[in-house]
Each structure stands twice: as structure tokens, then as C-alpha cells.
Amino acid sequence: MPPSRHLGFGMRLLVAVFTIVFLATAQAQPAVPETKAAAVFAAWLDAFNSADAVKVGAFDRTYRPAPSLAQLSGLRRQSGGFVLVRVVASEASRFTGLLKEVESQRFAQVQMALTGDPEPVLASFALDLVPPPADLAVQRLSEADAVAQLVSHLDEAARRDRFAGAVLVARDGKVLLERAWGLADRARNLPATVETRFRIGSMSKMFTAVAVLQLVEAGKLGLDDTVGRHLAGYPNRAIAETVTIRQLLTHTGGTGDIFGPGFAENRHNLRTHDDYVRLYGERAPDHPPGAGQRYSNYGFILLGALIETASGMSYDDYVRRHLFEPAGMTSTGSLPESEAVPERAVGYISRGNELVPNSDTLPWRGTSAGGGYSTVGDLLRFVEALQAGRLISPALFQAATRRQAGPFGLGFAVVGDGDWQGFGHNGGAPGMSGDLHVFPRLGYVLVALANLDPPASSRPLEFIEPRLPEAR
């Protein structure tokens, strides 16, 4: 799903962020008015930025915000804190301010109101992502200057251990930047390279979508076929009889997630798509199929099972033979974690002030819903094969990458407007972060992969997109 507009719930990044964002010019923070509400805001900002448990606890006990500062600890790690850009409105019991994240080009508006009690608490609190003000927009640069600024930005981010991964920028088939930063394996002090295979999470949903569309073109599947037409004996009748392949691709089938207690308890035993179906197949839809949209990892598990049934091949064999080999993607796959994969990076989770391996969170192997690995170069080759018509027909490619339901095409995220309308997908889980942004009208392909928590891969693309020139 697209990132939540409400930053208080962690800005879940489930598909690629294409929104053009801007960098605030360096300036001193404005003075905070001498009101009670402004003083509470200043205390909130100080506690949030400090990441100090004592300050955070004291603020939460005194003012009882919802969400609490303690609940925003993940946002604090991701954002690096906030700076106040300007005071929007200030009254005795209300305060509204414009903030900018320290670690990114994102802006947010904070609004808070106090109760009328002698010792007031927060009556309301909101922290929302907002477009950057026009007067704080950065200027578009030449390709060379935009790339140079991105390199400097990532040099500094890597120096502060805020980025480890690889980035690729291409335009009209010409690679403008392909470079890596940081360490792929900290225990062995192995640097990341452009050949490092990073885990890509849900980015592999694009591979699943293309595989399904190939089978549609071959007449083995139909977009409006139901699940039950191909998966005989599927346990839940409502899903079998009403959910279609189109709805699975557009996250409108109500098929739910795979993560939660059931996954945690069975992580090492979930080795095939059939294993997932046995675990989750009895569940009813979590909303009427076709009547809503909710990002569904299990829906893409079902697509993997459908690919296997329709093709007579395992999912991994099918995508290797029909996608990776035709596209020249020699470093992409989803072998089990128990197998040694050359150049596969170790993922690292932020726990407090430490980075620890994410091995205790990983599935047995990648699936049709995500969890494989790739390189920035292979993902460029995937885009080039798609655009050249080597994987699916131009007509199906256009259908897959234009809006079908909400922000989704057929398995691809589709966001933006005008020349900056693009497609792609992201992938995020503890210790892995990946983004692919493709802007066909302008010819840009942008890829970032990282072995750190999300949104590590989003930051580089957010930095360079508003700086890239539109004119050729």
C-alpha cells in the first residue's frame, strides 16, 4: 500500500513512494511563541528528538498524547528527528507547525490542542505528511549535478551508518550512476558492491504479476477467473467462488496478510506455497471481494499457487525460465536461507543503538509474495525487458502499469501524474529495503537496495527525483 499519510503510525512503506519531495533550505529554526501550547510543542519536539527514555516517559505521563511518544520510536529512528521550519498558527491552547525530517526531504504538519484544565493534557494531536511549501523547493539540476549531489548525500549517510546498499540511476538506457556504499556483511567486514544481492521483499511481486500475465496471454489463466477454477478444493468457499485473479493482482480480493502469530510460529515450516494455503486457506475474506482494497501478501501467495497449477512448474523454475533468463537477470532468485548464495548481503535490524542481523525474522525462502534477492543491475534489466516487449505484450504491459484500482495496476504500484507518472514497487521488512521507480515519459529508471530497515532505500530516490532535469 502507499505510505500512510499519518506519520504517527510509522509511515508504512508497502509500495514505492513516487511523490516528488523537496529539501528545505538551511535556516535557523523560528522562535516558538510564548504560549502554553507552543511550550508543550517545544517539549514534545525536544523529547522526540532526544530519543531519551526518561524525557519520553515524562512527556507521555504529563500530557498523555495519542499516539504516545514511546509509540513513535520507530519514526524517530527512521526520520532522524524533526526540525521546526515555521510556525503556521499559534493560540493559547493550540499550535500548528511545519516540520522537516532530519534524514529526508519529507515535510510534516504537527497540530496539537490542549484541554482547558488547570494542568492541561493533549486533547488532540496529529502529525501528517504534507507537500513541501513552494518557497522551499530545490531547483532542478543537470543530470551530472543531480547525480553528484546524490553521491555526496550518500557518502555522508554511509559515513553516519544511515545507508548501506546500492543505487542505480539510468535514463534512456544510459546508466548515469551505479554504485554501492557501506557493508554487505559487518561480521566479515565485506563491503557492498553493485554485484551484491540484496533481499528485495515485496519487489518480487512484480515478477509474480508478469508471470501471471504471461499465462493469461498463453490462455492458461484468465484475469476474471476465480481462484477455485484453478485451485480445486480450495478450503474457503467464498474466496474460491468469488475472488478473481484480477482482484488478487490489484489487492481488492480481501485475502489478507501472511504475517502475524501464525507466521512466527510456523516460519521454518512454511516452505512451499501449498504450505501457506494449508495454514491460511480456511480464512474468509477480510472485506467483500472487489468492494475494498487492502494490501494482501496472501493474495500473492495464491497467485504463486495459480502459476504452479497453470504451468505445471514450481514458481521458482517458472520465473527463472520465463522471466530471469529472457531478461538476462543472472543474480536474481529466492533460494532458501539455508543455502549459501554468493554475494547475498546480510540484513541488519536497528535495535536501540545497535544493528543486529535479521536472520531470526526471515522466512524459509522467498515466495511469490516476496523475500527473494536481486541486484540493482538485474532490476534495470527487468525494466528494459518489460519495455522492449520481451516478457509480455506491449498491451498487457500498459495495462499492468496504469491505475486499475487505487494506486495499483496489475501487480505494479502506479503513482504520480503528468511526466512524473511512474510505476514500480518497493519492498520492506526488518533489515531489507528496496525501491524501483520507473518514469517512462522522462526515460528514468531509479533503483535503490539496502540491507537496513526501511525506508533506507527510499531516501536516495526521494533525494534525487526533485533534482533530476525534465528536459532532455
UniProtKB/TrEMBL annotation:
The keyword Membrane applies. Keywords: Membrane, Signal. This is Beta-lactamase family protein. Residues 151-460 form the Beta-lactamase-related domain. It comes from Phreatobacter stygius. Gene3D superfamilies: DD-peptidase/beta-lactamase superfamily. Residues 1-28 form the signal peptide. PANTHER family: D-ALANYL-D-ALANINE-CARBOXYPEPTIDASE/ENDOPEPTIDASE AMPH, PENICILLIN-BINDING PROTEIN 4. The keyword Cell membrane does not apply. One of its GO terms (cellular component) is membrane. It is found in: Membrane.
